[in-house]
């Protein structure tokens, strides 16, 4: 699918070290995912798509047009420091997201079990 896109606003935010782009997509509301939007914007702006983060997607009332806001960072470390974790997880595929969350749960469980074993061993 190809969607006609129009850049509404493009500005650099030097304080946060990012570029903020507002884009309008014609006939795209409800037909495209965040990941696909990110790839389309990366191709259009000729950038690496891993540093592009979709912030908001708003369909226009009574139309199929979609207004989207993207933040573009210079590197991944800047994005991780500024953007909340849930936004970074939201742009991953379901499999990648599930894998990361399962790994974190396993680490927490091991830490909890180790703390319980240490507490139990310390009471003698």
Task: Describe the 3D structure.
With about 120 residues, the protein is of the alpha+beta class. It has helices at about 35-45, 75-80, 85-90, 95-120; strands at about 5-15, 20-25, 50-60, 65-75. Strands 1-2-4-3 form a 4-stranded antiparallel β-sheet. A hairpin with a 6-residue loop joins strand 3 and strand 4 (about 65-75).
Helix-strand blueprint:
Elements: E1 5-13, E2 18-25, H1 34-45, E3 52-59, E4 66-73, H2 76-82, H3 85-90, H4 94-122
Antiparallel strand pairs: 1-2, 2-4, 3-4
Number of domains: 2
Top-tier CATH class of the largest domain: Alpha Beta
Fraction in beta strands: 25-35%
Helicity range: 40-55%
Q: Which sequence of SSEs, written as H and E, runs from N to C?
A: EEHEEHHH
For the record, give the distance between the C-alpha atoms at the N and C termini, rounded to a whole number: 67 Å
CATH architecture name of the largest domain: 2-Layer Sandwich
The fold-level CATH name of the largest domain is Alpha-Beta Plaits
- Order of strands, widest sheet: 1-2-4-3
Q: Overall 3D geometry?
A: elongated
Q: Point out poorly predicted stretches.
A: none
Radius of gyration: 20 Å
Question: Can you count the beta strands?
Answer: 4
Structural class: alpha+beta
**What average pLDDT do the residues reach?**
86
How would a textbook summarize the main sheet?
Answer: 4 strands, antiparallel
Helix count, DSSP H or I runs of 4 or more residues? 4
Oligomer designation: single chain
Characteristics:
124 residues, alpha+beta, Alpha-Beta Plaits, 2 domains, 4-stranded antiparallel beta sheet, 4 strands, elongated
